[in-house]
Amino acid sequence: MESTVSNIGFSHFIAQSDFLGKTILAILIGMSIVSWTLIIIKGIAGWRRKQYSNQFLHFFWNASSLDTVRHEIQTHGIRCPFSHLTSHAQHAQEHHVHYGAAKLSEAGTQQEFVIRTMRMVMDEDAARLENGLTVLATIGSTAPFIGLFGTVWGIYNALINISASGAGTLDKVAGPVGEALIMTGIGLAVAIPAVIGYNWLVRSNNVLMSKLDTFANELLTFLTTGKLYSINSEPTDMASPVVHNIKRG
């Protein structure tokens, strides 16, 4: 009995698995590596993005003019979505002032052109933030089923081997079947971190884009009127038409 128990386990299951069983295990291991790599890389990138965003917003609201902000961006480069949006909005305003509506993409008033540019920039940032999330979602949703398939295949092979040997006692059946359930556990171990990581990254991205929406309205108001809109006071007649114009579709 002790000898039988000692021969049952993960290593024994792998040794007895056929090519398909080993392939399923390799797929699950690969999915786990990919999901953890994405979570770590995007987590570090998100932390750095948050630091750069806080630094830029602090500098922006304490700057003496937009020229100072422009010089800061030119000196240190674009390192966060807020500086990215500010740089393109300023460039769009200057471009329309100097060249007007030379192309269909520049048609309309200066304010409309700036709004379109800011929407485009925000869509680019949103798409960049979402890179890799589809992979995480796919891993989180499919890994349990891949593991379950490995379990079904393992149980099938175990029952075939037991039937061929003619030993159908409980101790001969329970061991191989229990080993096959390892694949389901591996599938869940791969899926759970992927789902948690996906939800965490989506939540972080939504918070960032919400802050970027608010900043975009304030930036647009400042670019078009030279004044900032405050929720604690009534907006001026010039500011009111542009507040809340920047919203992602």
TrEMBL record:
Transmembrane segments: 20-41, 135-160, 180-201
Location relative to the cell: Cell inner membrane; Membrane
Chief localisation class: membrane
Coiled-coil region: none
GO cellular component: plasma membrane
Domain MotA/TolQ/ExbB proton channel: 100-213
Subunit structure: The accessory proteins ExbB and ExbD seem to form a complex with TonB.
Protein name: Biopolymer transport protein ExbB
Species: Oxalobacter formigenes OXCC13
